[in-house]
Amino acid sequence: MKLARAIDRLNEAIAHAVGWALLAAVMICSGNALMRYTFSLSSNAWLEIQWYLFATMFMLAAAYTLKRDEHVRIDVITSRFSRRTQVWIDLLGFILFLLPIALLILYYGTPYALLSLQSGEMSPNAGGLIVWPAKLLVPLGFLLLVLQTLAEIIKRIAFLAGRIDDSSFTRTAHNPQEEIAAIKAANHID
């Protein structure tokens, strides 16, 4: 459980830091639109940085989404089963589907990103940015997802062994008002 908690803390810290990418993306998008429509000025670099920020949010927060149990589920079907059966379904899904796919993408995505880094790959668009930072997000994001999957497997096994209750891997809030309150509390927002 120490390893699972350490992975949880890592992905929480990364997700909170990546949250600032959303603010940056909104500001850049707004500034770019203002410049384009007011002064007829724009650049491919401003458009690409928006894409890079979106990719950063998506790739680096995917593991945090898994940790918070916010990924797409089939609750309509599994809600009919006992909690123990639901945990078994989660465990088998992690081991048979999520972990192998994430490892496969990590395996094939790493050389792809490293090649881009080594070549100093640039955008083919006029005035575009370097591409390799965005491509490095693929292996980094999937590495974080693999780690979080391992943490979730550890937690499910601990639950099945009777060592923990399911509060360490289920949603902390079940309605939108509670979700918003939990997010505000976690980010110290009034």
UniProtKB/TrEMBL annotation:
Species? Duganella fentianensis
Keyword annotations of the record: Cell inner membrane, Cell membrane, Membrane, Transmembrane, Transmembrane helix, Transport
**Source superkingdom:** Bacteria
- Please report the name of this protein according to its UniProt entry: TRAP transporter small permease protein
Q: Spell out the subcellular localization from the entry.
A: Cell inner membrane
Show the Pfam families listed in the entry. Answer: DctQ
Role according to the record: Part of the tripartite ATP-independent periplasmic (TRAP) transport system.
Record-annotated membrane-spanning stretches? 12-37, 49-66, 87-109, 129-147
* UniProt-listed InterPro entries: DctQ (IPR055348), TRAP_DctQ (IPR007387)
Q: Does the keyword Lyase apply?
A: no
Q: How does it sit in the membrane?
A: Multi-pass membrane protein
One Gene Ontology cellular component annotation held by this UniProt entry: plasma membrane
Which residues belong to any copy of the Tripartite ATP-independent periplasmic transporters DctQ component domain?
Answer: 27-157
| Summary of subunit composition and partner proteins | The complex comprises the extracytoplasmic solute receptor protein and the two transmembrane proteins.
Give the molecular function GO annotations: transmembrane transporter activity
As for family, the record states: Belongs to the TRAP transporter small permease family.
